């Protein structure tokens, strides 16, 4: 009876050891870059074959051999699963890259939250900017005058549930920190604020557009082209992974022509409050050949819904049209500035 009890305890110990190994192996593999997974699988097969040869030439029971083959198969499946998950992670990164350009903006006056909006990252000559609508930072018509904003930034490329909130002041010594522009028709409803990248949360993970995303590359936009407006309508988003959502849209006015002499074109899309400052994008036809993580052309910055003052609210539906300011204004807003003497 005593020997049976000891044998049972030993079996339980071995099961516990195997479970611990099962937990350790995936952790070790996940710590390795995906490019190493295939080499690890080949090495495991070589060592398993060597162990198999030793056991076949030793006085070992068939039960041990069966258990060995079973565990080799199990380990092989773990290796294969990790390799596949690594491949999925690469695809996941590619699929979410464009969503990582955009961040949710909350405006504040002191400690009081005022409104929500959308913004996106834009990089030029090593400088990083947050772009959005000018009316997000200051809106005289809406009596909206925040003194700071908060944005959300991911902090783990593999675990998108991890993020940090970063506060950005809008004024220093009484002077506004954002950059805005005007043209012959007046103020352009696009603004940028430069971010000190070294002050962002540690291990910040995001994607940024740059001047190459403004290029047509021989694919001139035309009326009716399919677009994506990526943002946070009414603040709605994936609250677990802190990712924006994309609304489908199309070009609704002659692209390249200032609609009613304003610096924007029209889009046909369902949009809501909170979408202000969203990037308006067109998927490139040659995206599969593009080595960039962002295979999109940045056409505009969504600003506001366009409607008719004479519309009968009881009989007529909303037009469903929106104004998107031409994105090339970003090159003006992000021009390098000479330091003040």
Automatic annotation (TrEMBL):
GO terms for molecular function: serine-type endopeptidase activity. It comes from Corticibacter populi. This is Serine protease. Keywords: Hydrolase, Protease. One of its GO terms (biological process) is proteolysis. Pfam families: Trypsin_2. InterPro entries: Peptidase_S1_PA (IPR009003), Peptidase_S1C (IPR001940).
């Amino acid at each position: 009876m005593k020997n049976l009890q000891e044998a049972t305890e030993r079996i339980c110990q071995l099961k516990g050891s195997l479970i611990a190994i099962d937990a350790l192996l995936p952790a070790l593999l996940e710590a390795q870059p995906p490019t190493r997974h295939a080499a690890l699988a080949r090495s495991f097969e070589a060592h398993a074959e060597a162990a198999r040869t030793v056991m076949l030439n030793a006085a070992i029971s068939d039960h041990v051999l069966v258990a060995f083959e079973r565990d080799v198969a199990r380990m092989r499946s773990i290796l294969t699963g990790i390799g596949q998950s690594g491949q999925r992670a690469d695809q996941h990164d590619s699929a979410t890259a464009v969503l990582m350009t955009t961040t949710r903006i909350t405006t504040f006056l002191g400690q009081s939250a005022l409104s929500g909006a959308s913004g996106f990252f834009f990089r030029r000559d090593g400088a990083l900017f947050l772009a959005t609508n000018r009316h997000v930072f200051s809106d005289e018509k809406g009596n909206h005058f925040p003194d700071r904003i908060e944005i959300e930034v991911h902090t783990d490329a593999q675990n998108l549930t991890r993020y940090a909130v970063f506060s950005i002041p809008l004024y220093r010594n009484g002077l506004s920190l954002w950059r805005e522009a005007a043209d012959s028709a007046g103020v352009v409803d696009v603004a940028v604020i430069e971010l000190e990248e070294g002050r962002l949360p540690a291990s910040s993970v995001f994607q940024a557009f740059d001047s190459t995303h403004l290029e047509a590359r021989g694919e001139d936009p035309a009326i009716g082209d399919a677009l994506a407006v990526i943002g946070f309508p009414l603040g709605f988003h994936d609250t677990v992974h802190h990712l924006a959502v994309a609304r489908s849209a199309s070009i609704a006015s002659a692209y390249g022509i200032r609609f009613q002499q304003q610096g924007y074109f029209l889009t046909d899309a369902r949009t809501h409050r909170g979408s202000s400052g969203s990037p308006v994008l067109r998927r490139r036809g040659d995206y599969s050949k593009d080595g960039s993580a962002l295979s999109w052309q940045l056409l505009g910055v969504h600003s506001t819904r366009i409607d008719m003052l004479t519309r009968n609210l009881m009989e007529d539906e909303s037009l469903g049209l929106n104004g998107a300011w031409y994105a090339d204004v970003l090159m003006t807003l992000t021009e390098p500035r000479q330091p003040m003497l």
